[in-house]
Amino acid sequence: MKGICPITQKEDFIRKSHIYPKFMWKHLKNTGGSIFRNAANPTKELQNGEITNLLGEKAEQMFSQRELWFEKNLFTPYITNPIINNRFTYNTELYYFAISLLWRVLYINKHCVPQDLSLIVEEAIEDWRSFLNKEIDIPRYFYNIYIMPLDSVKMGLQPNIYDIDFYLLREFDTNIMTACFSKDIAVYCKFPRFCFWGQLRREDANVNYGIKINPKRGILNFKKYNVGSGIVRDYIINRINESAEIAEEISNKLSDKIQDTMVKRLKTNIENLRGSELGRLLLERDY
């Protein structure tokens, strides 16, 4: 259908777009997944992740180009062998991709933010839109963007704990973090193995959002990076705990019929699951 693209602000054919890029869902399928569920509508099965009418064809092409770069040059090499592939040279494609993902989740959820944050969220959406549409070289105000590799050891968490591993390795999550003892505000966008932070307001210089992404080029050294202590680590741990609570609530809401179907599907595919990432989480844990 035709409509006004929120990026170009011109009439275009509006495409069905993945909120999170398709390659991320493909990765989950390749590592044991088959059916996905959204916490907001847990009874609905998703084959290929969440899709919504969002971008015009021109914007979709611009976003897809950067998604392909991230998948090929960083995501796939890192998840394939994070011990060997932990140092990456990047260019402006990484910065664009990070903002495209942060903009997407912020734009889609803008009506859900608290009233006291609505103004700064709208300002960030427009600033990032101008950058993504190539009207400006870098965002005017919200230009501090960070990437954080998520690993239980790097975070100082006990490995092989189901709730921790499942969240870090396989879940999607987004929210706006507001610090309790400062005026810091940041957009949090988490996907398998990584998260992006988009800084909206900063007061405490000691807040560790991860590795800052240069708008033009730079080097990421994940081997030397550690999350350390502080509000960001505490925030992610809190999100892990909240995710586990939500999963428990969803399980209680699912009918016996749906749960029986899920168990039957698991038993049918148990041999295919063995040796996969999801299989390790579900079948090989002794905790």
Jot down its keywords.
287 residues; 5-stranded antiparallel beta sheet; 12 strands; 3-stranded antiparallel beta sheet; alpha+beta; 9 helices; 42% helix; globular
Structure description:
The structure is a single chain. This protein has 287 residues and is of the alpha+beta class. The chain contains nine helices and twelve strands. It has helices spanning 22-30, 57-80, 92-108, 118-132, 162-170, 231-253, 256-268, 270-273, 277-283; strands at residues 2-4, 11-18, 36-38, 41-46, 51-56, 87-90, 145-149, 173-178, 185-191, 194-201, 211-212, 218-221. The model has no long low-confidence stretch (mean pLDDT 88).
Structure summarized in a few sentences:
It contains nine helices and twelve strands. With 287 residues, the chain is α+β, with helices and mostly antiparallel strands.
Task: Give the arrangement of secondary structure elements.
Elements: E1 2-4, E2 11-18, H1 22-30, E3 36-38, E4 41-46, E5 51-56, H2 57-80, E6 87-90, H3 92-108, H4 118-132, E7 145-149, H5 162-170, E8 173-178, E9 185-191, E10 194-201, E11 211-212, E12 218-221, H6 231-253, H7 256-268, H8 270-273, H9 277-283
Strand content: 15-25%
From the alpha carbons, calculate the radius of gyration and give it in angstroms: 19 Å
Total number of strands: 12
Strand order of the largest sheet: 8-9-10-7-11
Choose one word for the global shape. Answer: globular
Return the average pLDDT rounded to an integer: 88
The number of helical runs is: 9
The H/E string reads: EEHEEEHEHHEHEEEEEHHHH
N- to C-terminal separation? 50 Å
Which structural class best describes the helix and strand composition? alpha+beta
Low-confidence segments, ≥5 residues, pLDDT <50?
none
Q: Estimate the helix proportion, in percent.
A: 40-55%
Main β sheet profile: 5 strands, antiparallel
